[in-house]
């Protein structure tokens, strides 16, 4: 069995920071005069969740959506109040400075046309019966002068509209008994408005999270692409110097030198483009977070990788979909029995050659220990001869059906890192067949050489030697469970 890694796109090998990045952002202090006036501020690590919270706190769209929710809530209260009794109270105070009744209730006006009343007290005509006639006449005259001098409206001064200070209080009560469905309709409109406002707020939050996450990972990807472009530029310059030296001593042609010069020149605009893309990506992220444009930003993928993959307690906890961005291609040669187990993973791409006898076969070590290896080889040799005759008579496609499963087959295997987590953690368990365990272990080893930072979280990949009896132990445990449940034992 042999396993060779196929060299695919270089970008697929260097995309681990696309989904694994924590940002180190330095925010300048308020009131800072110049960079040389203070010591540099150390960078502060910020996670993706913190970036989303910061952007939400600074987003105008979120604030507008929240105001819409508050307005809809107020409209709900307003519509509900129409079903409740309406109770009103009023109070007022009036100070009368001058009125048409001021002479009636206040001091009497002086009238020179009327005779002057007698001095107080001005009593009614009540004289003793023993008074003389002259005294009676004098009393009648005094009573007449009193009547002419008094204000006939003096009793109005005690009434309210004639008072200088007036106090009024009122209380009202009303209850809607029938409004023709208007109140119910207004409540329905208010409730619908509240639901619409809640949906709008949730939509704005989801859109903001999407924008921040995309900008966050774009910035991390831009860092890696710049590093890749700069590394490629350094490599092409090194190749150019070596080619120039070889041309000087006459080991290469002028065409080879020209090709190296073109490759080196073509790499420079790629570096410039990657640097510009990185600058745009970081500016977009700072815009969403409302950070100063001169804040330095640096990527650190370990923090997010730990947050994404550090908490897996068993292999059934699937790896996040971000790992699907890393792609791998393998060319595998193994016996057909191992292929039959591995080709059942439908979520990845596999293409195989026709099964034949040209690649040889695998001899199980247990047959050698039991002394049955010679009989096995004789049977395989007869199958090989039969396959050759049938291949010549009916073609290689139909001749596959006489090839034993021990013969090897070559197939092409394309898989992303998320599926590789699942496949290798499942197919390397001790109870697995040794043939496909070796294939899965080798695939994981090659992927670890390319992306050691990403594959180190596949903690449930068993890279140790297998136990051939462990599969039988697993079957026995299954049989015990079936007996406990009262089911048939296979």
What does this structure look like?
With 490 residues, this protein is of the alpha+beta class. The chain has a domain at 327-485: Gyrase A, domain 2 (2-Layer Sandwich), CATH 3.30.1360.170. It has helices at residues 10-13, 48-58, 60-80, 102-105, 133-149, 182-249, 254-289, 301-309, 336-342, 365-370, 373-394, 396-399, 417-427, 434-450, 452-455, 470-485; strands spanning 2-5, 22-25, 44-46, 86-95, 165-174, 297-300, 327-335, 349-352, 408-416. The radius of gyration is 50 Å and the shape is elongated. The model is unreliable at 4-38 (pLDDT under 50).
Set down the secondary structure blueprint.
Layout: E1 2-5, H1 10-13, E2 22-25, E3 44-46, H2 48-58, H3 60-80, E4 86-95, H4 102-105, H5 133-149, E5 165-174, H6 182-249, H7 254-289, E6 297-300, H8 301-309, E7 327-335, H9 336-342, E8 349-352, H10 365-370, H11 373-394, H12 396-399, E9 408-416, H13 417-427, H14 434-450, H15 452-455, H16 470-485
Antiparallel strand pairs: 1-7, 2-3, 2-6, 4-5, 7-9, 8-9
Helix pairs in contact: 2-6, 3-6, 6-7, 13-14
């Amino acid at each position: 069995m042999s396993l060779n890694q196929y060299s695919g796109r270089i970008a697929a090998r260097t995309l681990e920071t696309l989904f694994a990045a924590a940002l180190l952002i330095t925010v300048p202090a308020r009131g800072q005069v110049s960079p040389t006036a203070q010591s540099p501020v150390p960078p502060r690590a910020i996670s993706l969740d913190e970036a989303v919270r910061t952007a939400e706190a600074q987003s105008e769209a979120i604030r507008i959506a929240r105001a819409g929710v508050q307005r809809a809530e107020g409209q709900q209260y307003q519509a509900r109040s129409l079903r409740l009794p309406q109770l009103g109270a009023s109070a007022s105070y009036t100070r009368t400075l001058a009125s048409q009744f001021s002479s009636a209730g206040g001091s009497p006006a002086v009238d020179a046309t009327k005779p002057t009343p007698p001095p107080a007290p001005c009593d009614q005509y009540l004289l003793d019966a023993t008074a003389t006639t002259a005294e009676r006449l004098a009393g009648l005259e005094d009573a007449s002068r009193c009547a002419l001098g008094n204000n006939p409206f003096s009793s109005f001064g005690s009434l309210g509209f004639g008072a200088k200070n007036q106090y009024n209080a009122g209380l009202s009560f009303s209850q809607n008994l029938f409004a023709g469905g208007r109140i119910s309709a207004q409540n329905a409109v208010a409730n619908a408005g509240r639901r619409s406002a809640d949906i709008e707020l949730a939509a704005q939050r989801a859109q903001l999270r999407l924008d921040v996450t995309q900008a966050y990972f774009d910035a991390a990807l831009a860092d890696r692409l710049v590093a890749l472009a700069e590394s490629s530029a350094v490599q092409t310059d090194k190749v150019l110097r070596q080619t120039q030296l070889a041309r000087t001593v006459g080991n290469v042609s002028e065409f080879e030198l020209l090709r190296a010069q073109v490759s080196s020149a073509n790499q420079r605009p790629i570096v410039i483009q990657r640097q510009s893309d990185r600058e745009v990506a970081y500016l977009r992220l700072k815009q969403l977070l409302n950070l100063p444009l001169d804040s330095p930003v640096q990527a650190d993928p370990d923090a997010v990788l730990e947050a994404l993959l550090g908490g897996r307690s068993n292999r059934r906890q699937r790896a996040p979909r971000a790992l699907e961005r890393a792609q791998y291609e393998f060319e595998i040669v193994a016996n057909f029995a191992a292929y039959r187990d591995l080709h059942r993973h439908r979520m990845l791409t596999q293409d195989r050659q026709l099964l034949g006898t040209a690649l040889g076969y695998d001899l199980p070590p247990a047959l050698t220990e039991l002394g049955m290896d010679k009989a096995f080889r004789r049977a395989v040799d007869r199958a090989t001869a039969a396959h050759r005759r049938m291949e010549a008579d009916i073609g290689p496609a139909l001749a596959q059906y006489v090839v034993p499963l021990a013969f090897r087959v070559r197939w092409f295997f394309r898989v992303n890192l998320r599926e590789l987590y699942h496949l290798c953690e499942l197919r390397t368990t001790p109870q697995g067949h040794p043939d496909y365990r070796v294939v899965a272990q080798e695939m994981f080893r090659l992927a670890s050489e390319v992306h050691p930072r990403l594959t180190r979280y596949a903690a449930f990949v068993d890279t140790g030697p297998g136990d051939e009896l462990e599969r039988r132990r697993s079957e026995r445990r299954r049989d015990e469970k079936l007996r406990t449940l009262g089911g048939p034992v296979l």
